[in-house]
Amino acid sequence: MSLAIDLATIWALIIAFAVFVYVMMDGFDLGLGILFPWFPAKADRDVIMNSVAPVWDGNETWLVLGGGGVMAAFPLAYAVLLPALYTPMIAMLIALVFRGVAFEFRWRAQRERNPWDLAFAGGSWLAALAQGIALGAILQGVQVEARHYAGGWWDWLTPFSVLTGVSLVIGYALLGATWLVMKTEGSLRDRAYRLSWLLLIGMLGAIVAVSIATPFLHVQYTQRWFAWPNIIFTAPVPIAVAAVTALLLRALTNKYDYQPFFLSLALFALSYAGLGISMYPFIVPQSITIWQAAAPENSQTFLLFGVSVLIPLILGYTGWAYWVFRGKVRPERGYH
Amino acid sequence: MFEGWDAVALARAQFAFTMSFHIVFPAFSIGLASYLAVLEARWLLTGREVFLNLFNYWLKIFAVAFGMGVVSGIVMAYQFGTNWSVFADKTGPVIGPLMAYEVLTAFFLEAGFLGVMLFGLKLVGPRLHFLATLMVAIGTLISAFWILSSNSWMQTPTGYAVNADGQFVAADWLEVIFNPSFPYRLVHMVLAAYLTTALVVGAVGAFHLLRDPHIAGPRVMFSMAMWMAALVAPIQILAGDQHGLNTLEHQPVKIMGMEGHYQSHPDGAPLILFGLPDQQEGKVKYALEIPKMGSLILKHSPNAPMPGLDTVPRENWPPVPVTFWSFRIMVGMGFLMFGLGLFSLWCRWRGTLFASRLLHVFAVLMGPAGFIAVLAGWITTETGRQPFTVYNLLRTAESASPLAAPAVGSSLLAFVIVYFVVYAAGVTYLLRLMAQPPHPGEAGPSHEVPIRTAGITPAIEGVTQ
Question: Which residues cross the membrane (chain A) (predicted)?
Answer without folding.
Answer: 7-25, 76-98, 118-140, 160-182, 194-213, 225-249, 261-283, 303-325
